[in-house]
Write a structure and sequence with these properties.
about 10% strand; about 55% helix; 8 helices; about 230 residues; mainly alpha; elongated
Length: about 230
């Protein structure tokens, strides 16, 4: 914990005491909180955002993620009450950033990494067994259809804990402080506007079936119950 975090923790403790049943103790704690905020120039927005964390998970793309990967990251983020940001760290690496009330952000990033590994493995197997004899453009496009339905099926029952009271306001305050302006994410959708053939529909069905076999388990360090359809 750095010095700023230590200050925020002290203010939070005072605010918790300010909600106590003792009128005298509550008033004293509130005055102390206000004094610390003034002394260290802590804004109400920064105080509200305290407790929100950011966790990174490596993307499978460098700059423009496929729609199916974006869908996976988005579904996981929503399941754990997190905001999602795509960040290109340097020329050959990009990350998804999960922003949430700790430890939800850490669990979301972990969950995404686990599911992305399974999604890529299933995609590779589908390409190797079903798409070996078609041209590259159709192979990638049809594999995307498989992956999109894999994500849909795999995430159908992903559920995190109920976010604590005030989580949304805290995350919004954090975003206002640290990520005030974000552009729209440009994703690669190779099937946009296309009429799907029977083989395309078969790829969707195969992805849906494969995704139902996905598995997600909590890490050793977490106590949160995770669910994923089996």
């Amino acid at each position: 914990m750095d010095k700023r975090d230590d200050i925020l923790a002290k203010i939070r403790k005072c605010m918790d005491l300010a909600r106590s049943g003792s009128e005298h103790e509550a008033a004293s704690a509130l005055r102390q909180a206000q004094k610390l905020m003034e002394m260290h120039q802590v804004s109400s927005v920064e105080m509200l955002a305290a407790g929100v964390g950011e966790s990174k998970a490596k993307s499978g793309a460098v700059a423009r993620p496929a729609k199916w990967e974006s869908d996976l990251a988005g579904r996981v983020a929503r399941a754990f009450g997190c905001k999602l940001i795509f960040i290109r760290s340097y020329w050959d690496v990009a990350h998804w950033l999960f922003v949430g009330v700790a430890p939800a952000n850490e669990i979301a990033a972990y969950s995404f990494e686990v599911l992305l590994r399974q999604a890529l493995k299933a995609r590779g197997e589908f390409i190797a067994t079903t798409l070996k004899r078609i041209k590259k453009s159709n192979k990638t496009r049809r594999a995307d259809l498989f992956s999109e339905c894999w994500v849909y099926a795999a995430c159908a029952n992903v559920a995190g804990p109920t976010p604590p009271e005030g989580a949304k306001s805290a995350i919004d305050a954090h975003m206002q402080l640290h990520h005030p302006s974000l552009g729209e994410l440009d994703v690669a959708d190779r099937n946009a506007g296309r009429n799907l053939s029977a083989k395309d529909e078969a790829a969707l069905a195969a992805g849906r079936l494969s995704g139902r076999g996905a598995r997600l388990h909590a890490g050793v360090a977490t106590t949160t119950n995770l669910m994923l359809g089996g």
